[in-house]
Amino acid sequence: EVQLQACGGGLVQVGGSLRLSCAASGFAFDDYAIGWFRQAPGKGREGVSCIQLGDGSAVYANSVQGRFTISSDNAKNTVYLQMNDLKPEDTGVYYCARLYWARYYNGKPLVPSDYDYWGQGTEVTVSS
Predict the structure, then answer these.
(1) Residue 2 clears pLDDT 90, i.e. is over it
(2) For residue 48, which of 57, 61, 59, 39 has the smallest C-alpha distance?
(3) Most C-beta atoms within 10 A of its C-beta, which of 24, 83, 108, 127?
(4) Distance (Å, rounded) from C-alpha 95 to C-alpha 61?
């Protein structure tokens, strides 16, 4: 059974940092990419970052470029999202999701509908 479990959210002040984790199980880790998405209250789901687990390549949304870093520990089947210099607009529920490796290279790896399994989400609140 495919499972993705996100954790690490919390309340942080503007300029602070958080590290989210996504623990995966039930599939061949290296054959996929893992993406992070977020959803603010009343808004749609937004792609934040994605990492291709086979070669470690990654992409970021413009809104988080230079502040967020995605990484993976393939031995632990875990993906991390280090979030620095947090802003109020980073507030939302953060989800990790699975993307088949070939879809990562189609030029648009942050499209939610391309992902097949989703974790339960972890809430991030950035207070000003």
Answers:
(1) yes
(2) 61
(3) 83
(4) 15
Three-class SS of the chain? CCEEEEECCEEEECCCCEEEEEEEECCCHHHEEEEEEEECCCCCEEEEEEEECCCCCEEECCCCCCCEEEEEECCCCEEEEEECCCCHHHCEEEEEEEEEHHHHCCCCCCCHHHCCEECCCEEEEEEC
pLDDT tens digits for range 85-113: 999 999 999 999 999 988 888 878 999 99
Q: How crowded is residue 25: how many other Cβ atoms within 10 Å of its Cβ?
A: 12
